[in-house]
Amino acid sequence: MSEISAVPMPLTTNRKVWLTMVVIASLLCGVIMILFYFQELFIVILFGLCLIVLMDKAIRLFNKYTTKYTKKQKRVIAIAIIVSFGGFWGYLIIAQISNISSLFADLTNIQIMINSGTQMLADMLEIFPDTVTDRVHDFIDDMVGAVFLYVRTFVSQAFLYIVAVVLIYPIMFSMYFKDKGNLKKTIEDMIPPRFEKEFQTTSSAILTRSNNFFVAKVIESIGVASICCIGFYLIGLPGWLFLGILAGLLNNVPYIGPTVSTIPPFIIGLVIGWKVAVLAIVVCGIAQIVDNLYLIPFMISSKIKVNPLTTVLLILIFSQLFGILGMILCLPIYIISKIILVEAYKLLILIFPETAKKDEEL
């Protein structure tokens, strides 16, 4: 697949070019705003696209190593792999649920910890004036209320996501795996012959850079999750698989993700003892050290090719505009938008050749 040329282009003074660029940039901003406005639907479709990419890569890899087998033999091998893979992960999930359930079956230790913590806080507040004590109590009540409100909101949103997945995913997977050739041909037929080469260059660059970003984030998530899973298992933390995978997923949320991922293992560790809780934090810290000193500099940055200062600014701006989802998606949106704008600029220079030649003479 072809990439966008890294050679800088001279800027034109053609007014028509820049007016058209402003229109294209405005349309891109409008599309981004619409996507984030329908945030729930956007998340469902985006996650579905990620699943399609993973399944497509798995199918290609499977076909690559089973070329010498017949179609019937391939089907038998595929069924065996799916059953084995599903059985392995099913066993692990059931074991994890059993460990966590047995851990919280007896709530005596948790109740003792809550009572001791409450008593310690009450003793500390006795030395302060009544106004300070009342404010602290109000703050705690507000925090508890916010937590319960978040839980109720999460449950209602989870139900909406499940409904959307059931309705949308069959259509998405059918369109891609059954009608992929027809869909591609339909899109190509919509492009005027004059712009066919530019469309292929742009789409190829978008697919290549998006794939690089996706692969980089998958590698980073798997690396962090693997370190956390192994560490949690070695310190004897129940639910080590769930907690490790959760740490890998939350690591994709810049800044706050790694911090939030330490809370569940710390809380579960407290049920067992302070030593396990502290060791859980140490494991998360080691995972972040490896991520920041090895994964990001040597594997991630080489694939996404985005300036660190630009990354920070994008995260800050998108977090203010669109929240956590904006923080997660700011880089792929920037990469795709940059490709579209650069290729559009090249095309506009060709569309207005007379003015472009005058600019070169000047």
Give an overview in words.
The chain is mainly alpha-helical and 362 residues long. The chain contains 13 helices and no strands. The chain is 86% helix and 0% strand. The two termini are 36 Å apart. Mean pLDDT is 78; it is low at 1-5.
Write the layout of secondary structure elements.
Elements lengths: L14 H23 L1 H27 L5 H35 L2 H18 L4 H48 L2 H11 L5 H39 L5 H11 L5 H6 L1 H10 L1 H31 L3 H44 L1 H9 L1
Helix pairs in contact: 1-12, 2-5, 7-8, 7-11, 7-12, 10-11
Structural descriptors:
globular; 362 residues; mainly alpha; single chain; 13 helices; 86% helix
Alpha carbon gap, first and last residue = 36 Å
* Largest sheet descriptor: none
> What is the overall shape?
globular
What proportion of the residues form beta strands (DSSP E)? under 5%
Rg of Cα set:
26 Å
Mean pLDDT, nearest integer? Answer: 78
